[in-house]
Design goal:
The complex is a heterodimer.
Chain A (H helix, E strand, L loop, with lengths): L9 E11 L5 E12 L4 E5 L6 H8 L7 E6 L2 E2 L7 E4 L11 H5 L1 H5 L4 H15 L15 H12 L6 E5 L7 H18 L2 E6 L2 H7 L2 E5 L6 E6 L14 H13 L12 H11 L1
Parallel strand pairs in A: 3-8, 3-9, 6-7, 7-8
Antiparallel strand pairs in A: 1-2, 1-4, 4-5, 9-10
Helix pairs in contact in A: 4-5
Chain B lengths: L2 H25 L9 H13 L4 H31 L1 H16 L2 H12 L3 H25 L3 H9 L4 H37 L6 H9 L5 H29 L4
Classes of the chains: A alpha/beta, B mainly alpha.
């Protein structure tokens, strides 16, 4: 698990981060985060609202500088935004005056790619994220929420990042669309071979996509649990009915501070009940 | 454009002309107070064919275009500065507001005194009157740029220049065009007011001539019509530019 030859490994080492408050004080948001993510792994970050999940993602993305400790990509300190890291925000964040295609190739344009290479890369990217080429010329306002997020995903993958960071990327989508996107994300992960860190509110989503679910405490965020999801891959929606899933789910809920969800060993009655429901 | 788009416009205009005609007939006002629409139309065509309006039209157009260009250029720069620097805004805004609060009608004679009765004073007056709305619209436009888009730009390692060119300017453009729409009509007012305060050529000079020594009230109306048409045409140019640059979002 630790020593991996694959690129895209992340190491967070004693990360502290505090926002300055208006009165000149400091509001601690992250408190001593230690985390190692092997290259090619998928980790879900889960935690209560305002626990610093998004802040943590921004530190990894090089957008925020930690007060103490550091984030490392393949053992090199991340001090600024890095082209090897792609970022997908909670909302699609597309430029409304550009077509879907020009939004996708925007990072390439900033990086100075010539137009013909951008076009070439565009067709690869639309295919990769399953975007209908017919919508390439449409403006974001003309697209559905799901299609917009697909465009945002393609944009994040434009520079072939080794790490893909996703900040509650599918939370605005309806439940069914969301599940479809989760599975597509897995397929994409298979092909694009990136490390994925996904922030989510959804326990089923975390279990469906991740190798590991990292649970953060309320602010200031600390790692309170690091739970392995040992379900075989490739996964399907039906895997969510598995008993292992309800066990893992209960464990996550327990660490999130839900008093109803004690660890599996002490609540065999509820475990049996949920098993009965699952089968 | 299809017939469906223009039909109501033409209809409304016909109604306006008809109302005008009705007022003339019912009130029985003499032509030197209110000429009938067909009298004005006839004089308008005549005066253009005779080349009576043309030189004045050219003078006024040059003033408007130059004044608008100068005013807009300065307004864009200052508006951007106001949006970027709180200190600059605090220092500059009292003067900007004061310059706007003093009616240009009062300033015009002074500016003609300073800059002479020629083109320069008109460009200054035009530029001055255009400046304020465009500067404010530019400031508001740059302030309203979505911070999340800037963060996106930063995450993609955009340079400050790239952020300005690919994010801030396109995002501010709809607001800026709001200011330009107001500004372009004010530019016409500026040129006319400037000519009123002292000039030897221009549409306002022709209006004065028609009213005074020529005592040709239909010509005065024909010139007024020309001024109105100039305003409409320039406004439509701005709208067309807006549609090209801002388009559907």
């Amino acid at each position: 698990m630790t020593a991996s030859p694959r690129i895209g490994s992340l190491r967070l080492d004693g990360l502290d981060f505090a926002f300055p408050t208006r009165r000149g004080g400091r509001l601690p948001v992250l408190d001593g985060i230690d985390l190692t993510i092997r290259g090619g792994g998928i980790v879900a970050l889960i935690g209560p609202n305002g626990c610093g999940k998004s802040t943590l993602l921004r530190v990894i993305a090089g957008l925020l500088e930690p007060d103490r400790g550091g984030a490392f990509l393949d053992e090199a300190r991340i001090a600024d935004p890095d082209p090897r890291i792609g970022l997908v925000f909670q909302e699609p964040r597309l430029l409304p005056w550009r077509s879907a295609a020009d939004n996708i190739t925007y990072p390439l344009e900033l990086a100075g790619w010539p137009a013909d290479r951008r076009r070439e890369r565009l067709s690869t990217l639309t295919e990769l994220v399953g975007l209908d080429p017919a919508v390439a010329a449409a403006r974001p306002a003309e697209l559905s929420g799901g299609t917009r997020q697909r465009v945002a995903l393609a944009r994040a993958l434009a520079l072939e990042p080794a790490v893909l960071l996703l900040d509650e990327p599918f939370s605005a989508l309806d439940a069914l669309t969301r599940e479809r996107f989760d599975l597509e994300l897995l397929r994409l992960w298979d092909r694009a071979a990136t490390t994925i860190v996904i922030v989510t509110h959804s326990i089923p989503e975390a279990i469906l996509v991740a190798d590991r679910v990292v649970v953060l405490s309320p602010r200031p965020g600390r790692v309170v649990a690091d739970i392995a999801v040992d379900l075989p891959r490739p996964r399907t929606i039906d895997d969510l009915d598995d008993t292992a899933v309800s066990r893992i789910g209960r464990e996550i809920r327990h660490h999130l501070g839900d008093p109803e969800a004690a660890p599996a060993a002490t609540t065999s009655a509820t475990a049996a009940a949920s098993m009965a429901v699952a089968s | 454009m299809s017939r469906g788009v223009w039909l109501p416009v033409v209809g409304a205009f016909a109604l306006f002309v008809l109302a005008w005609k009705v007022v003339v007939v019912v009130s029985g006002l003499p032509p030197f107070i209110l000429p009938a629409p067909e009298t004005v139309a006839q004089r308008f065509v005549e005066a253009w064919l005779q080349g009576l309006i043309w030189p004045h039209f050219v003078t006024t157009m040059v003033e408007i275009v130059l004044g608008f260009a100068v005013g807009v250029t300065l307004a864009l720069l200052v508006g951007y500065g106001l949006a970027r620097s709180a200190l600059f805004e605090r220092l500059a805004s009292p003067y900007l507001v004061a310059a706007q609060a003093v009616p240009v009608l009062v300033l015009a004679p002074l500016l003609v005194l300073w800059f002479g009765p020629g083109l320069l004073s008109k460009v200054v007056i035009c530029g001055l009157i255009v400046f304020f709305p465009v500067a404010i619209a530019t400031m508001v436009g740059f302030r309203s740029v979505d911070a999340r888009l800037i963060e996106l730009g930063r995450s993609l390692r955009a340079t400050p220049r790239q952020i300005l060119r690919t994010l801030e300017i396109p995002a501010a453009l709809p607001n800026i065009f709001g200011g330009l729409r107001v500004g372009v009509t004010l530019a016409v007012v500026g040129a006319i007011v400037g000519e009123w305060a002292g000039a030897s050529s221009g549409l306002a000079v022709l209006i004065n001539l028609a009213r005074g020594s020529l005592f040709d009230i239909p010509l005065m109306f024909a010139t007024l019509l020309t001024v109105a048409l100039v305003g409409i045409a320039l406004y439509l140019v701005v709208v067309a530019a807006e549609q090209r640059l801002v388009g559907a979002r």
